[in-house]
Amino acid sequence: MPELPEVETIARGLRKTILGKKIKSIKLSPCRILQNSTVCLSNKLNRQKITQVKRRGKNIILHLSGDDVIIIHLGMTGQLLFLTNKTPFGKHDHIELRFSDNTFLRFSDIRKFGKFKLAKFSPQKKLDDLRELGPEPLEITKDAFIRLLQKRKGKIKTTLLNQRVIAGIGNIYADETLFEAKIHPEEKVCDLGPSRLGKLHQAVRKILKKAIQAGGSSVDDYLNLEGIKGFFQLQHKAYGREGKPCTRCNTKIERIVLSQRSSYFCPKCQKSRGSPPETD
DNA sequence: GTCGATGTTATCAA
DNA sequence: TTTGATAACATCGA
Question: What mean pLDDT comes out for the span A122-139?
């Protein structure tokens, strides 16, 4: 499931493989992933160069030589693959850009929750798809993070998953982050207090950075551009570890359902304890 | 062969 | 305003 570290890994790969290349042709099988008409897409993309590759939350943004951008969201099972040989379209392959040096960028998506969209870019106006996103977790300062979260009413896990609050965190990194910060997923954000929110900010930075270094987590189907797995799943301490011993205290990791998703946590390390008295 | 789990976002209801 | 449920979709495993 591509979250910030996986998407960042892919964006870095794209800069190494397709930056500056010219689109020669495009191949697509119409489906809901495509947000534009196929005719319009082919016409507009032809002969354009990839001038910039960016990431915002879980979105990849390819800037083109005109004032167009391609916005890609991988959903749950979306994959981007860089190919140097012509290989036939499989059942789950949906879009392919062919570059003038006969290399290819292919978008595959088993469950078709991904998005591929061509949009107009202007430096003044934020793109529709990105406007509602909260700040980048690796860019926001500790003070701003605390101020941002203090306003929220819900449970901390649900809040971390909300892209409008903070962008790029999904189920895996929410669980890993809360484990690192020793916070129970069901704890109310407003009960955490500035000191524990500060710890959480630190944990978010630590976990996301380590995950990017490891090339992301390959839980069932994530692969990078070259088709290679990430390594961070080997360092997961909470996610997917129900019944296994906590790496800190040996207590069995528990699983509960929150916002219709699994939440894994250590019942001993991550006790709900409300706001401790603040000394300052 | 059926059913539940997987987890992202848009949309709609409360 | 905010939260919660549901649908979109395909595969895997019990």
Answer: 84
